[in-house]
Amino acid sequence: SDAEEDNDRIFAAPESTGVSVVKSKASASKRMGKREKLRAKLEAFQATGLPVPNMNETLRQFFDRTADAWVIEAQNKYPTETGKALRKLGFPLSEVRFDELRPLLQKMEDLEAEEKAKEQEKITRAKGKAKDAKKLKGRMK
Predict the structure, then answer these.
(1) Is-above-0.70 flag for pTM?
(2) With 0-12 CB in 10 A as exposed, 13-18 as middle and 19+ as buried, what is 82?
């Protein structure tokens, strides 16, 4: 699963002291908890049967991807309307859904960006340590 892969990636390279490993595991566990809570909320919205925006998707992209569902919703609300009018009436319905879910998706995007930044920081530190070790080894010759 994604969570297991993330754990493997996060815990794969322990630091030289046990303290930072414990901190890494604790903060990773906390982030995983946040992510799981956000996913549970998102799944509850998905269970309603209405489309859910993807992360980093604009309102226009969301509507274009899910227009058929919104036309059906508009048809249910406005049974006398047809054709292009249903599409026009469907857009505000998608906008309400988009606005309703945007804060949740933004939190997920922020959490993902934070995790990527921490991972990049780890990689940068590891590269720095490798360079330092190489320099030290070169001086010892």
Answers:
(1) no
(2) exposed
